[in-house]
């Protein structure tokens, strides 16, 4: 078992082991630091292009790293702490 102390590089390295993209890594780390938010706010804080944000979040949901906090529009996402 590996304990992550909250440093971005540790989290990014952990996600790389799951085949995550750079955008997924940025989105997940941002969600870990902010809790939950709407896609647009997560995207801006993560410095991810809007055109890639939804795909990154969808992929993170499929992998079990992210869940919908609120499915109403605009959708709100939160990180799942594993």
Describe the structure.
The chain is an alpha+beta fold and 82 residues long. It has a single domain (8-79), classed as Winged helix-like DNA-binding domain superfamily/Winged helix DNA-binding domain (Arc Repressor Mutant, subunit A, Orthogonal Bundle). It is 54% helix and 15% strand. The chain is built from four helices and three strands. It has a three-stranded antiparallel sheet with strand order 1-3-2. The longest helix is centred in the last third of the chain and has 14 residues, at 50-63. The chain starts with 7 loop residues before the first helix and ends with a strand. The mean pLDDT is 85.
Summarize the structure.
This protein has 82 residues and is α+β, with helices and mostly antiparallel strands. It is 54% helix and 15% strand. It is built from 4 helices and 3 strands.
Please render the helix and strand layout as text.
Blueprint: H1 8-16, H2 22-34, E1 36-38, H3 39-46, H4 50-63, E2 66-70, E3 76-79
Antiparallel strand pairs: 1-3, 2-3
Helix pairs in contact: 1-2, 2-3, 2-4, 3-4
- Total number of beta strands: 3
Q: Which term fits the overall shape?
A: globular
Mean pLDDT: 85
Between the first and last Cα atoms, what is the distance in angstroms?
A: 11 Å
CATH topology: Arc Repressor Mutant, subunit A
Number of structurally distinct domains: 1
Radius of gyration: 12 Å
> Judging by the overall fold, what is the CATH architecture?
Orthogonal Bundle
Going across the biggest sheet, name each strand in turn.
Answer: 1-3-2
Q: Could you name the ranges where pLDDT drops below 50 across 5 or more consecutive residues? A: none
